[in-house]
């Protein structure tokens, strides 16, 4: 029997049918990556989708060819969750249809539709590069843990993690080590891994450290920013404000990352950035919170707050930009505590064998 996929193990509403763990667009389909505001690489399922669409366009996958989720996952070296997303998106675009029993079947489609789905024109061919095994499961593990830390602290059991994903203990150990670098897990007094609960007190500590460190990193980055970096940041924020009602969780996460990770990363002090990254575990949590918490604001307040940082930075007023960043973090703390409280009240996490509630 196949193990439950992470998409089936996501948070659920406390009453009513189980929620899907995958973000959905307004039409009910799985999300697109959204506008490329930060130059980030496409998600795994999107890269797999493009390759499969290109093969359909080239005739390498002829009409009637059968595609199974497990085979796509194995072929691309990805988990079944992104493989499923790729197939569902191709079906939504009319290139596949549900086969009898299970799986999908390639259908004849208009050439224009196939070219569009494959990324017609201009793009270089997309190939999934070989990834280390830990990288194939890391983001799923990170999201599954963070999605549960709003409820309580969790013991992370390495050997159960390895068994759940069918990987070696060495791979599981690498995943947990990288979770530690991101501030997601820590070791207790008996040297056991655990993910601390996002209590108001702990969230306050994280934001207090960020308010101390990030303005320093901003001051260091100011003199090393690539030409046009602040203008690009400002442009992306203004474009987001113009379509604020349409922004989805991934869009908001990308905008947060552009300032707090990409721009600060130019400070040149690796030791400082390691510390900054460690206390930015709330950025990971926000990926979950933006998706699951209800929409509280017609326009997310951080968009305007980021502009109060970008405008003085563009004018060379670095101290003013740093102070605006501190104010933004203070305000963001209050909103994060509120969102976590709502998620804790309205959702419950499904059990996972490698997590033990503390």
TrEMBL record:
Keywords: DNA-binding, Transcription, Transcription regulation. SUPFAM superfamilies: GntR ligand-binding domain-like (SSF48008), Winged helix' DNA-binding domain (SSF46785). The keyword Transcription regulation applies. Residues 42-109 form the HTH gntR-type domain. Pfam families: FCD, GntR. GO terms for molecular function: DNA binding; DNA-binding transcription factor activity. The keyword Oxidoreductase does not apply. Residues 1-37 are annotated as: Disordered. This is GntR family transcriptional regulator.
């Amino acid at each position: 029997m196949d193990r439950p996929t992470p998409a089936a193990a996501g948070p659920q509403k406390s009453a009513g049918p189980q929620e899907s763990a995958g973000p959905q667009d307004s039409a009910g389909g799985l999300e697109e990556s959204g506008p490329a505001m930060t130059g980030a690489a496409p998600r795994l399922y999107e890269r797999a989708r493009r390759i499969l669409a290109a093969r359909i366009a080239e005739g390498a996958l002829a009409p009637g060819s059968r595609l199974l989720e497990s085979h796509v996952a194995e072929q691309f070296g990805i988990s079944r969750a992104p493989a499923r997303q790729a197939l569902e998106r191709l079906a939504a675009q009319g290139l596949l249809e549900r086969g009898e029993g299970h799986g999908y079947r390639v259908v004849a489609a208009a050439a224009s539709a196939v070219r569009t789905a494959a990324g017609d024109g201009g793009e270089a061919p997309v190939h999934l590069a070989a990834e280390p095994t830990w990288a194939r499961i890391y983001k799923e593990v990170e999201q599954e843990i963070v999605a549960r830390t709003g409820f309580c602290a969790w013991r992370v059991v390495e050997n159960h993690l390895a068994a759940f994903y069918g990987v070696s203990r060495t791979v599981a150990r690498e995943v947990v080590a990288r979770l530690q670098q991101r501030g997601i897990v820590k070791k207790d007094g008996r040297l056991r891994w655990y993910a601390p609960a996002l209590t108001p007190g702990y969230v306050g500590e994280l934001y207090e450290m960020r308010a101390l460190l990030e303005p320093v990193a901003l001051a260091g980055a100011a003199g090393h920013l690539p030409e046009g970096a602040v203008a690009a940041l400002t442009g992306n924020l203004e474009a987001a404000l113009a379509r604020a009602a349409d922004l989805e969780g991934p869009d908001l996460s990308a905008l947060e990352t552009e300032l707090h990770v990409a721009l600060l990363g130019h400070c040149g002090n690796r030791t400082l950035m390691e510390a900054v990254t460690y206390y930015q575990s709330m950025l990971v949590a926000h990926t979950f919170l933006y998706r699951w918490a209800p929409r509280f604001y017609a326009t997310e307040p951080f968009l305007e707050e980021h502009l109060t940082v970008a405008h003085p930075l563009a004018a060379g007023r670095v101290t003013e930009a740093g102070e605006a960043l501190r104010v933004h973090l203070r305000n963001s703390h209050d909103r994060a505590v509120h969102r976590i409280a709502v998620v804790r009240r309205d959702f419950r996490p499904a059990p996972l064998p490698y997590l033990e509630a503390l």
